[in-house]
Design a protein that fits this description.
Length: 346
Amino acid sequence: MRATPEGPIAIYYEHPDWFRPLFAELDRRGIPYVRLDASSHWYDPAERLSPYSLVFNRASPSAYLRGHGQVTFHTLSWLRHLERIGVPVVNGSAVYQMETSKALQLDILDELGLPYPRARVINNPALAPRAAQGLRFPVVVKANIGGSGAGITRFDDAQSLAEAAKAGRIDLGIDHVALVQELAPLRDGHITRVEVLDGKFLYAINVYPAEDSFNLCPADICQTTDGQQLSRSACAVDAKKNGMRVEQFKPSREIIREVERIAARVELDVGGIEYLVDDRDGQHYFYDINALSNFVADARNVIGFDPFERLVDYLVERVASSSVAAAETAAAGAAAAAAAAAAGAA
């Protein structure tokens, strides 16, 4: 290991508000940590030792919406560097690459044999009408790199899609790749988001989106389904109340198994996996894998516990297990060196 076992935990993040509850819990416990601004960051590829005991990747694919488009691609390079020199990373390069490609997410779901809404991948806006042939309308054109509902446009029929393509009104996002995907009618008007920690089921919520909105960020939810207003301590300070509603939900064992299979395949330590039930056929379809998980607002009132407490428990356990692994590796190396020296002396 090339991390420093006694060093602080590094929280690598870009959004100024989303992680206030995490910082507060670390402060409350007196756990040493440093905040690394992902929008202004550098590293040395030649370094062999990191000052951090653990790096927690909290970079968001939606950073470009806040004028920080440089974050996305720099982050992937840095995570791969950390892994190369043996620094423990929570939500490392594999899952971060997956989060920044909705096309890759669908390939993984297909590989696992799990259901997802039918889609085609394009790299030219003019191809959107042709890609939509055979799909059921409405469809969405969904930017490959999005976040918080950004880069998603709905088209209710083939004519409106063709007109938008002809007029140059289709934006494929910062990597010029997008999905053309069926937009299913939601059974009971909600999607379900399943959160995992250490790749295992943590909790699930039903989210009832605001009308004509694709923003399903759980930290931005303002009320429960019975009308109780929620304290949104983790959302942006200037976020408007948006009409989203939420309730706790317990998925079936089958869904939980499928979610955990996805988490294992993409190496997701902490995150949320979303699915919907299509009102036309009653089938569930996975449609988004989020490595940047914002826990639900006012969690104690919604799910009965504070997930940030369990998240910090997990981070502490990861540091401890990494320290043990480093000590064992060092001891094995010392033993091998001693054996080699003894053999040479003989």
